[in-house]
Design goal:
With 262 residues, this protein is α/β, with parallel strands linked by helices. It is 24% helix and 29% strand. The protein is built from six helices and 14 strands. α1 (24-31) packs antiparallel against α3. The protein is globular and about 50 Å long. The protein starts with a strand and ends with a strand. 36% of the residues are buried.
């Protein structure tokens, strides 16, 4: 684990530091050792762009520990010990959850994207591919996910070493997890060509506050996200904010952003 002393969105060092906690599960899963309770930590809030995040960041091995076998047997065992309510969350199999998750992306696609020009689609970090919109059924659909989960029929696995670009890329609910968001953005750019659409979806935090950090160690709103994306060569074409009732609090306010490369 390492620490940062600047804002990850705008790079400003004008940040407020606040006492915070790292969730027991997060510490256990990344280090392999059960701390028995939440771990004292430090949070930051940027005075310039309002980004909020944990000062504590995970190195490559710790990040691999967290997401390899994601939602698998051992992951679920540890998560249920730390958070017994986790076993009651049915979001990954509930059809209504998928319908609600499609609202933002479908709206932006309908307003801006010519479906007939979309031949290759990649959901980067997309689990089994179930979140790829049905409007792309005639395209070749790919998914990349660290968990190694089996994809749905007709959806292919993408290998990052492959030199392949896509007409439409989806990055749903990843940026809030990343110790180094700019590293993720660089990987996405390698998968895009000059006319690609890149769609981002993440929890929206219009008034972010420092508190307890779980798997989400970054908290963005449209202001801080715009700065991060533009700094890394993404132009926001449009965005949409909405929420829906869910046992998962992060979906009560979603930020959906459609971009192109500059």
């Amino acid at each position: 684990m390492y620490q940062i002393n600047h804002c990850l969105a705008c790079l400003s060092t004008d940040i407020e530091l606040h006492p915070a906690k790292l969730a027991r599960f997060l510490s256990w899963q990344t280090t392999g050792n059960d701390p028995g309770d939440d771990v004292p930590s430090i949070g930051m809030k940027c005075s310039h762009c309002s980004f909020v995040g944990s000062v504590d960041r995970f190195d490559q091995q710790e990040n691999a520990n967290l997401y390899t076998g994601y939602r698998g047997e051992e992951y679920t065992r540890i998560r249920n010990i730390c958070e017994p309510e986790y076993q009651n969350i049915s979001k990954f199999v509930d059809p209504m959850y998928r319908e609600n998750r499609q609202i933002g992306i479908q709206k932006l696609i309908k307003q801006h994207v010519d479906i007939s020009q979309i031949h290759q689609v990649l959901d980067y970090g997309g689990d089994n591919g179930s979140m790829i919109p049905d409007c792309f059924q005639s395209a070749q659909r790919y998914v990349f996910d660290l968990s190694g989960i089996e994809t749905l029929p007709d959806i292919k696995k993408y290998t990052p070493d492959t030199e392949k670009t896509f007409d439409f890329l989806i990055c749903g609910h990843l940026l809030e997890h990343e110790s180094d968001p700019e590293d993720l953005l660089a990987k996405l750019k390698k998968c895009a060509h000059s006319d690609s659409w890149i769609y981002f979806e993440l929890p929206n935090n219009p008034n972010p506050y420092v508190g307890r950090f779980h798997e989400h160690i970054n908290f963005f709103n449209i202001r801080s996200l715009r700065i991060l994306l533009e700094k890394n060569g993404f132009e926001i074409i449009d965005f949409y904010e909405y929420g829906f009732d869910s046992m998962i609090s992060c979906h009560k306010n979603n930020l959906c952003v459609l971009t192109k490369l500059v």
